[in-house]
# Entry
Amino acid sequence: MHVVIPGRYNGPPTSGNGGWVSGLVASHTPTTDDAPAVSVRLRLPPPLDRELTLDVGDPTTPTTLRDGDAVVATASAAPAPDGPLPDPVTVDEARAAEAFAITAEEHPFPTCYGCGPDHPSGLHMRSGRLPGDSGAYAATWVPRDDSLPEVWAALDCPGGKAAGFPATVMVLGTMTARILTPPVLGEEHVVLSWSRGDDGRKRHAGSALFTADGRLLARADQTWIAVEPSGT
# Structure
C-alpha cells in the first residue's frame, strides 16, 4: 500500500515527526497476546509529502516503510514496556511544570508537530520538570484525535525532553509503545516522562499517558540518538 506523510506532521522542518510516523507504521503492524506492543525503528528521516510504500507484515514479518528502495522504518510486535512508573500528578501540577518548558527561541525545531511552540496546529507538548527529586517531566494534553499516530506523537517529544533535549540535540531512533485505552477527545490528560539512562550517543527515556484522575492509558519506551555533543 502507499502512504503520504503530510508536511504538517514534521519534526525537523524537512522530515516527519518521529512519534507520528512511528504511530502510522504501528497502526498497520499486528500484535499478539505475548507481544501486545509495537516497536518501531526509524532508519532514515521520514520524507514529507511524497508517496511511500508501506509493506504490512504479520506476527513473524516486520512491517516496512520504504522510500523507493530505501528503508525508512521497520516495525514488529514486541513485549509491553514495563518497569516502574513515576507517580501520577494532577492536571494542575502538570500545568505548573509547563512553566519550565523550553521557548521557541531555545528550541532547535520550533515548528515540530509534537512540541514546537511555533507549529500553527501542532500538539504543543510543553514538558517541564516536576519539583522534587523524581527527575520526571510533565505536560498536559487535550486530544482532538485518538488515532495511533496522534497518541504516539503525544508520547514522543516528552520522552525527548526527559532524555536531555535540547541541551543535546537528538532524534528518535526507536519507540516501543502500547496503548491500553484510547484517550478521551476534548478532555485534559497528563503525559509524564523520565530518563532511563544513557549509553554513549543513545539516550533512553520512558513516557506514559494518564487521565486527569491518574488512570494509565498508554506507555512507551524510547531510544534517542544524539546528533550533537551535549551542551552544544
User: Anything to note?
Assistant: The chain has a mean pLDDT of 94. The chain is about 15% helix and 35% strand. The first strand starts at residue 2 and ends at 4.
